[in-house]
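Changelog note: in this version the structure field was regenerated for every chain. One regenerated record is shown below for reference.
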Amino acid sequence: MMKKMASVSLLSVLCLAVTACGGGNNNGNAAGTTPPANTPSASAPAANEPVKNEKLIVYTNANSDGRGEWLIEKAKSAGFEMELVGAGGANLTNRLIAEKNNPVADVVFGLNNMLYENLKKENVLTKYVPKWAGEVEPGLNDPEGFYHGLVKQAILLGYNPKNFTAETAPKDWTDLYKNAALKGKYEAPTLLGQITPQLVVAGILTRYQDPKGELGISKQGWDEVKQLFDNGVRAVEGEDFYANLASGKTPLGAVVSGTLSKKEEQYKVKAGIVSPQIGVPMIVEHVAIINGTKKKATAERFAEWIGTAEVQGEFAAKFNSMPANTKAVAKANEPVKALYATLKAQPLDWGFIANNIGKWVEKIELQIMK
């Protein structure tokens, strides 16, 4: 998910909105409605004074494949002027933490739960609950109200249907190393500098949480992960796993739902998908407001806008994604809806993962993958 740094500026746009009367509690959205009692609100302008949307600096790792340009134009039509700064999720997280005492960004969107948990721990985010938060699939938003779901990405175990049928394919990640017939037929998640392999590992290790175990994991959990790496084929940096799945070289391994249709079209092989009973790791891209922004009112209005069913539904149809907003799901493309109808999210303790993933990766690289 690494992206090159990119900054895009738009012409200045002013947004006129009707101000609420009598209470001074208008949060600046187009409808001028009063936010829920538990939702922070911005100070309203004086009566009859037009609302001005200040230029926002927005950090994201979700601006590739035309997504950034599309969002900028949609935001412009909604009255927002923004400078979009794009980079990889880990780089943006480190940058936001480094800037937290003098923040540059006003809003961040994209990233994933692990990175948002790190930002929350470092006091980089400010709590804000948009009105559409209640429309998001249960369990995807931050329960403490710091970040809220936009787009779902599932980490899937895929297989080549020429090598396996639904009956002979594994039923879970754990089958890869427990079934001797699958030894050497799957790609092990060895590129642990990337989010997808990290989540594959986390999806196994967190099944064996033990407060007395090494790094919070029982001995059995570490034994299982060792088997995962011992029995698989090491990934090669720069090599497209889907090419190996399609050719049959390694017909089993991790695929990301958001790239699935393009890979299937590129390699002319439609992967079979495993649906473990425990569920699949689900990356959710979120939006959050930066603590200390001097443009809080505009940032809140932007957050209210970007997560609506209308905006997320249009985005889903355009970019073949699955929105977290349940009211936007109807606009998703049919193959995407069909895929997600077979999946459920694996319950994961994101705070626990965020606090330990770096140490898990270090142990695996130094002791297990040696």
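Spot check on this record: Residues 350-368 form the longest helix (19 residues). The chain is about 35% helix and 15% strand.
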